[in-house]
Design brief:
Helices cover about 20% and strands about 15% of the residues. By secondary structure, it is of the alpha+beta class. It has three domains: about 1-90, Ubiquitin-like (UB roll); about 110-215, Alpha-Beta Plaits (2-Layer Sandwich); about 225-300, no CATH class. The strands form four sheets. It has a five-stranded mixed β-sheet, sandwiched between helices. Strands 13-12-11-14 form a four-stranded antiparallel β-sheet. The chain is globular, with a radius of gyration of 22 Å. The termini are far apart. Bound molecules: iron/sulfur cluster and FE2/S2 (inorganic) cluster. FE2/S2 (inorganic) cluster (FES) binds near residues 33, 47 and 49.
C-alpha cells in the first residue's frame, strides 16, 4: 500500500498504521506519541498527541478526512495522503492537545526526576504555548508508594494507560487500572498488587512523564550528568540486556534499553533493575548511542569532537591560521 506523508511516499504492508508508516520514513515526519507503545497490546488512542491531517483518504475515495485523526489508531489506505509537520493547522491543533495535557500537569521540571527524559517536557518545548489559559485549580494528589521501589505522583500523570497495560500484560489477575472518570480519573492504588511480579519495574520505563519514578534513583542525580552505557549480565528471568547509568564508577540506576522512539527494546526484570548496582555485576558493551533528540546525549564527548572537526573545517575554508601555527 502506498501512503504519502509530508510529501514522502512509502510502500507499507496492509494493516500498518499511519504512525508506524511515518516511523518507517524517519523521525523528521513521525508524530509524537505519548500513549502508544509498540510492545504493549491495545495501547494508543488516549492522548491525541499523534494526530495528523489526512488530506486524501485513499485512491478509491480521495476525500479528505473531516478532522485530525489519531495516527496510532488509523490504518493506512492505498493512496492515502497525510500531513504532519507540513500542515500549520495540524501543528496548531497539536498545540491545543499539549495545552490540554498540561492543564493539570505541574511545571515542576526543576525538581522532577524525569526532567531531561520526559516526553511531555519535550512536547511542551516543541509544541507548547508560553503560558497557560487555564484559570482553575489544578488537580493535586498525595504521593503514593507502590511497593518499596516505586513512587506514584498522580499529580503528574497524563493518564496514558501505559503502566496499566504493562501490569495487565505481565500478570494474570487484573488488580489495577484507572478508577473514576473524566477530571477525577486516577491510577488505582490496586496497581500496588501487581508489584510482586518480577517485571513490575517496567512501569517506570514506560511512564512518559515523572508520575512513576524509581525510588532507588530519585533525587540521586540529574540525568544529564550521568553516562549511560549498554551492558549485559547472565539472567535467568530476562535477557539481561540493559542500560546502566553511571556517575563516575557508581551505577546510579539500571533501565531497559530505549530505542529512538523512547520505547523499551526488551522489558527487564526487577533483579537486573534493582539488585545489581556494581559495575562488576555487568559486562559493559560501550557508551549508549542516543539517536533521538535528547539532552542526555549532550554529555557525550563524541559531539565535542564533531564540533571541533566542524570548526577546523570552517577555519580551513576561511584560510584561518591557528595562533600556534602563525609565524
Ligand atoms: S502513571 Fe505514567 S504510565 Fe501510568 S497512566 Fe500515568 S502517565 Fe501513563
Ligand atoms: S499516541 Fe496516539 S493517541 Fe496517544
Amino acid at each position: 500500500m502506498k501512503v504519502t506523508i509530508d510529501g514522502i511516499e512509502i510502500d507499507v504492508p496492509k494493516g500498518t498504521t499511519i504512525l508506524q508508516a511515518a516511523r518507517m520514513i524517519g523521525p523528521e515526519v513521525a508524530p509524537p506519541a505519548m500513549c502508544y507503545y509498540t510492545k504493549l497490546k491495545t495501547s494508543g488512542g488516549y492522548c491525541r498527541t499523534c494526530i495528523v491531517k489526512v488530506t486524501q483518504g485513499s485512491t478509491a475515495n480521495p476525500n479528505p478526512m473531516p478532522k485530525p485523526v489519531a495516527s496510532c489508531r488509523t490504518e493506512v489506505m492505498d493512496g492515502m495522503v497525510v500531513q504532519n509537520v507540513t500542515s500549520p493547522d495540524l501543528l496548531e491543533a497539536r498545540k491545543g492537545v499539549v495545552e490540554f495535557l498540561l492543564i493539570n500537569h505541574p511545571l515542576d521540571c526543576p525538581v522532577c526526576d524525569q526532567a531531561g527524559e520526559c516526553k511531555l517536557q519535550d512536547l511542551g518545548y516543541e509544541h507548547g504555548s508560553a503560558k497557560t489559559r487555564y484559570e482553575f485549580k489544578r488537580r493535586e494528589y498525595e504521593m503514593i508508594d507502590i511497593g518499596d521501589k516505586i513512587k506514584l505522583h498522580m499529580t503528574r500523570c497524563i493518564l496514558c494507560y501505559r503502566c496499566v497495560k504493562v501490569c495487565d500484560q505481565i500478570t494474570d489477575n487484573r488488580v489495577h487500572g484507572v478508577v473514576h472518570r473524566g477530571d477525577a480519573s486516577e491510577i488505582s492504588t490496586y496497581i500496588a498488587k501487581a508489584i510482586d511480579n518480577d517485571f513490575s519495574g517496567n512501569v517506570i520505563d514506560v511512564c512518559p512523564v515523572g508520575a512513576l519514578t524509581d525510588k532507588t534513583f530519585r533525587f540521586k542525580q540529574r540525568v544529564w550528568f550521568t553516562k549511560p552505557v549498554d551492558a549485559h549480565r547472565k539472567c535467568d528471568k530476562c535477557s539481561g540486556k540493559t542500560r546502566v547509568w553511571l556517575k563516575g564508577e557508581e551505577v546510579v540506576r539500571v533501565t531497559s534499553r530505549m530505542d529512538q522512539w523512547n520505547e523499551a527494546e526488551e522489558f527487564i526484570c526487577n533483579s537486573c533493575r534493582y539488585d545489581h548496582k556494581r559495575t562488576s555485576d555487568w559486562v559493559i558493551e560501550g557508551p549508549t548511542k542516543i539517536s533521538r533528540h535528547s539532552v542526555i546525549s549532550q554529555n557525550h564527548y563524541e559531539h565535542l569532537n564533531e564540533l571541533k572537526l566542524q570548526v577546523l573545517k570552517q577555519q580551513k575554508a576561511l584560510g584561518f591560521m591557528p595562533l600556534d601555527k602563525r609565524p
